[in-house]
Structure prediction request, 318 residues.
Amino acid sequence: MNSVTFQGIMSARRAVYRRLKPTPLIPYPELSTFLGFNAYIKHENHLPTGSFKIRGGLNFMAQLSNEQKERGVTTVTRGNHGQSIAFAGREFGVHTSIVVPYGNNPEKNSAMRAYGAELIEHGVDFDEARELCERLQNERGLYYLNPLVEPALYHGVGTYSLEIFEELPNVDAIIVPIGGGSGSCGAITVAQAINPRARIIGVQAENAPSIYLSWKSGKAIQTSSCDTIADGLATRVPFDLPLSILNQGIHEILLVSEDEIREAVRLALRYTHNLAEPAAAASIAAACKLKAELNHQNVVLVMSGANIDTHTLKSIMA
Prediction:
């Protein structure tokens, strides 16, 4: 199994910061009063693709061999990872074929096409779409980028956790949404190297709890469905790489309901005046359940993305 290392995250800064600036870490007094602790938002929603995933895409493309760049890349996504690869592919001149499940967020699909990606719809969910990538690898000779097992993605994503500890060394806890697990694994890796006292708390949707169930049981557990409004959390199948890191370093994983996620989108708008996609708002939903536990502490809530489609936003705000 390929590994995720602190040195790999440190090295990724060069590729990431050639094209991006660090994102803001902002304290919000009203939100802090509401939650009962010092709440800081890590604004990954401010990045060019509206998501933290762009960090991993840039680091991956920077490390790809010239031969592989000429062949092209295929990958699977619900949107944010795909946008990162489409964006990075455009920056590095690499053809990208991106597979999404039918019914995927139409606005995320449009953004991937705008960055120059070939978009292919296949399957009913992320995991069925992933199967087509394996065929494209064989049929077209494309490099298959599995977003759940590629360390370069984890290392790029981990740079946002470096920024957190550099700006707020005395952070007590970081709450991270978990879909595939790259964000939480980056936070764990950085925390263990810099400040092991800091607690890393993950959050999943009740309707997509594969990693939560796997963590609780100590073995990989697939779910039969992942029907959640938070498409960034909608995975049924956990992978060994993120599970191995989570099992070693996550302090807690919470589940939040669909109604709690919707309310968290509204809270993000109310207290931070930022548009958070449902997966990103999950950190606020979890924070609401941890008020007593985190009282008076310094807590970072990762707002991982802003890519909510118009229809979903209207339904939440109605």
The two ends are 46 Å apart (CA to CA). The chain has a mean pLDDT of 95. Residues 126-140 form the longest helix (15 residues).
